[in-house]
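In keeping with the milestone schedule agreed at the kick-off meeting, the structural modelling team has produced records for the first pair of proteins. Each record is given below as a sequence line and a structure-token line. The laboratory manager (R.T.) confirmed that both were archived under the project's standard naming scheme.
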Amino acid sequence: MNKTPLPTKENLEMKWYVVDAEGQRLGRLATEIAMILRGKKKPSFTPNVDTGDFVVVINAEKVVVTGRKNEQKLYHRHSGRPGGMKTETFDQLQNRIPERIIEKAVKGMLPKNAMGRKLFTKLRVYTGSDHPHAAQTPETLTINTIPARN
């Protein structure tokens, strides 16, 4: 019988990529990162198998949004207690925890199940241009989004 071979851990090659977020648009950057994490650009892609790679994002504080999203885009979190909803704008969150902006954007583009939660652990986001993953010898990945107008 002819069967399509499924990828296994033994015959999968996991790579590490470094993505520079400086001057990139948030949504377009997040979609590319989500596709790499999911493994959709690989010929061995299978929807129910984790075939994705690891992604390290640097310069997270320099990601940009268009229009008036700086003041209008809202991020919500809840403490779990009554009245515990906290809301802040893009600018406020970028000043406080800039890594969380990219993490939330990418997490929203991954599957909403156990595999999506596993894929999310392969994303590392850092402010500044330094990261502690030099031992994994990551490849630099250039994502060509629409450049931001200044």
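The second protein of the pair:
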Amino acid sequence: MEKRDREILRRNRIFLLDNIESLDRLLSELLAADIAIVNDSMVDSVQSNPTKERRISALLDLLPRRGPTAFSAFCVALRRTDQGFVADQLEGVTTGVEKKMKTLTVSVPPAEENQEDVIPLDDKKGPIQALVKPCTPAFFKQIDAKHKEIWTDY
């Protein structure tokens, strides 16, 4: 495996531990690949670990020693086991939405002079003090009547 691919696996290890789901199917795909990335004893060794995290970790430790095609075969196996988003993360593939998010600009309205009711949400001074006004019976009846109108139309 190329140094770049080993580095990608290292940097994404936590992501992989959190997101790989179908480990048994993934191991089967790696075992059945054109150039088998793992053999039966390696699969047994990985599966002998007591927890899912440790099994995935064992596979991630094994992959860098499995030859120059191990990384690409791993990504193909991820796609075949319906975990393409994991392969996308490893291969640096960005979706159309992600591309748009990188260039997203946010416009903020200009500050108004009278901002008595504006409370910054990130003041980091503790709980936000908010004034909650009680609902008057007249307002409640008005809203209730509006909802009854809406539901009687159906």
